[in-house]
């Protein structure tokens, strides 16, 4: 079995020949599986359990649930495994948690502001040594120190050819806009090593609607390439998914290795009633080989007030198909 980001698995060269699978989640493509959970993340462990976490609408805690099927996550009992602090760091607007299993331990990456500065987000890490992350204690490993201090969020991690990398979104005060995407090698699961490299900045019109945003990176390794999906623009119906691509043999810390799709690869689809899709992740279906696209969207276009105050970003999943040239095709529906 190969996980999308390469953790604890061998690399597979091709996914092009996969046929649609018949499971509850593919039969219900286009329908939300979990309501009011934004920035969804589903991690399939090597023992077959699926772990789900996401941003809960009050932004107060980190939720975790598990199931032996993707569809089963909808009814799985959620557990609040960590709560925000009363003040100081990690005390305001808990966003976009991700769970990973690295070197025999569980880690959760998330972003938080402070009560005295709600949008001064930084990236933090929790660690759990238990076999089941719903049990045992979560230890705060603290803030990931980036090359400079500024708003940052949406960290994800992946392994490639024996090296672990962190990819995240961060503001650079010297660059007009809100967030760019960066990559760095990792010394350990809570420490980056060396220089962080910018691999994407908002440049196309569709990345600049409302805000100049590249955020929410997610990694999938297939067909000789490393793909990083990301989200762009404000979190209303203009929110959409872009794609970066690098050869698996390239220097991933060289910005020139990465190419950006000139158009969004997944966006609002009014006919399907999905608005502002994005902040996705990837997982693998129960058959151990079919790739699954996990994302949030709203079911209506118009929002009153600030989109971040609207709780109705729901979790969706659909099969991720592959084109003949080996690239992901997000727009094929079963």
From TrEMBL:
Matches recorded under Gene3D superfamilies: Glycosyl hydrolase domain, family 43 (2.115.10.20)
Cited SUPFAM superfamilies: Arabinanase/levansucrase/invertase
Superkingdom as given in the UniProt entry: Bacteria
GO molecular function, one term: hydrolase activity, hydrolyzing O-glycosyl compounds
GO biological process: carbohydrate metabolic process
Site feature: Important for catalytic activity, responsible for pKa modulation of the active site Glu and correct orientation of both the proton donor and substrate: 154
Keywords: Glycosidase, Hydrolase, Signal
Pfam families per the UniProt record, alphabetical: Glyco_hydro_43
Region (Disordered): 1-22
PANTHER family attached to this UniProt entry: GLYCOSYL HYDROLASE, HYDROLASE, FAMILY 43, PUTATIVE (AFU_ORTHOLOGUE AFUA_3G01660)-RELATED
Similarity field: Belongs to the glycosyl hydrolase 43 family.
Protein name: Alpha-N-arabinofuranosidase
Organism encoding this protein: Paenibacillus sp. BIHB 4019
């Amino acid at each position: 079995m190969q996980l999308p980001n390469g953790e604890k698995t061998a690399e597979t060269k091709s996914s092009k020949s996969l046929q649609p699978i018949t499971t509850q989640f593919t039969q219900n493509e286009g329908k939300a599986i979990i309501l009011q959970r934004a920035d969804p993340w589903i991690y399939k462990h090597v023992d077959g359990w699926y772990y789900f976490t996401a941003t809960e609408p009050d932004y107060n805690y980190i939720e975790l649930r598990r199931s032996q099927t993707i569809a089963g996550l909808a009814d799985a009992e959620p557990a609040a495994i960590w709560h925000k602090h009363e003040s100081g760091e990690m005390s305001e607007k808990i966003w976009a948690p991700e769970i990973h299993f690295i070197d025999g331990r569980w880690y959760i990456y998330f972003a938080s502001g402070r009560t005295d500065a709600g949008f001064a987000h930084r990236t933090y890490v929790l660690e759990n040594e238990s076999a089941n992350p719903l049990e045992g204690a979560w230890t705060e490993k603290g803030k990931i120190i980036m090359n400079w201090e500024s708003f940052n969020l949406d960290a994800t991690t992946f392994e490639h050819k024996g090296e672990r990398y962190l990819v995240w979104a961060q503001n650079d005060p010297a660059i007009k806009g809100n967030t760019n995407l960066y990559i760095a090698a990792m010394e350990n699961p809570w420490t980056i090593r060396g220089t962080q490299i910018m691999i994407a900045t908002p440049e196309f019109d569709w990345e600049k609607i409302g805000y100049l945003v590249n955020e929410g990176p997610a990694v999938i390794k297939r067909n000789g390439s490393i793909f990083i999906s990301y989200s762009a623009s404000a979190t209303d119906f203009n929110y959409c998914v872009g794609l970066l691509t690098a050869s698996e043999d390239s220097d991933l810390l060289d910005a020139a290795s990465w190419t950006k799709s000139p158009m969004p690869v997944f966006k609002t689809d009014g006919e399907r009633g999905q608005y502002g899709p994005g902040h996705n992740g990837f997982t693998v279906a129960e058959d151990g080989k079919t790739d699954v696209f996990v994302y949030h969207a709203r079911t209506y276009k118009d929002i009153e007030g600030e989109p971040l105050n609207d709780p109705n970003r729901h979790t969706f999943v659909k099969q991720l198909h592959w084109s003949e040239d080996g690239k992901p095709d997000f727009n094929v529906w079963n």
